[in-house]
Amino acid sequence: MAASAGSSSAGNVNAVNDCFSIGSTVLCTTCFNEEVEGEVLAFDHNTKMLILKCRSKSTEELSDIYAMNLLLCSNVQVVKECNGNIDDPQKLNLEQVKMRLRKTVERRQDYLKSKNAEVSAEAQELYRAIAKQYGYNEVSWQGRNIQILNEVTISPPYRVDNVVSSSNNETSCNYIKRIIKQFFNTRPSAAPESGAPASTSSASVSPTSSSLSSSNAASGSPVPAN
């Protein structure tokens, strides 16, 4: 589709009526007065969405893809028309796209399972730390209590002394207690879970706490999503 866009002093009034040919170079000025220049990959006239491939700001080996809503652009200019033949766009691997979408939805659903309006944000973080080890299908909220494997319950304030097993499964209890200890010991200004008195020196760091912190960082301990 041939491009008929040009410089528009009237802003988006004229821009939304334009059509853009794939391969052309377009310069858009957003409502935040930010200029975005790139190659046209796609344009949908009904939604006024323009997809631009721009030079990456971080590396020359990659490109940044922008989805521009022309209704929110103050100015749109065609810098360079694409008059020659262009290569056909690469075919999308739809199965890979579907798989990534499914995994993204599953991760979001798992995160929502950890939400509980009756408990603190810290308790929800602990829930996610435990669910990461056991799987979200094996962990659930029972009121304000965290239940694991339908047999181990952690009640507020969610310390090692609050772990109870309905089947006296010491193995599961001990493993969950280690998760709790690591979780609280690696938090900023965390109180020791071993029962030892806290040090009065803010500059000293125990080797155990430091080791756990490094282990936790290496394993990618969950953090609350925005």
What can you tell me about this protein's structure?
- This protein is α+β, with helices and mostly antiparallel strands and 226 residues long.
- The protein contains 5 helices and 9 strands, in the order H-E-E-E-E-E-H-H-E-E-E-E-H-H.
- The protein has helices at 12-15, 94-113, 121-134, 170-185, 207-219; strands at residues 25-30, 35-44, 49-55, 63-69, 73-80, 139-142, 145-148, 152-154, 163-165.
- The protein has a 5-stranded antiparallel sheet with strand order 4-3-2-1-5, with no helix packed on it. A 4-stranded antiparallel sheet has the order 6-7-8-9.
- It is elongated.
Structural class: alpha+beta
N-C termini distance: 40 Å
Principal-axes shape call: elongated
Number of helices: 5
**Percent range for helical residues?**
25-40%
Order of helices and strands: HEEEEEHHEEEEHH
Give the biggest sheet: 5 strands, antiparallel
Query: Would you identify the regions where 5 or more consecutive residues have pLDDT less than 50?
Result: 1-17, 194-226
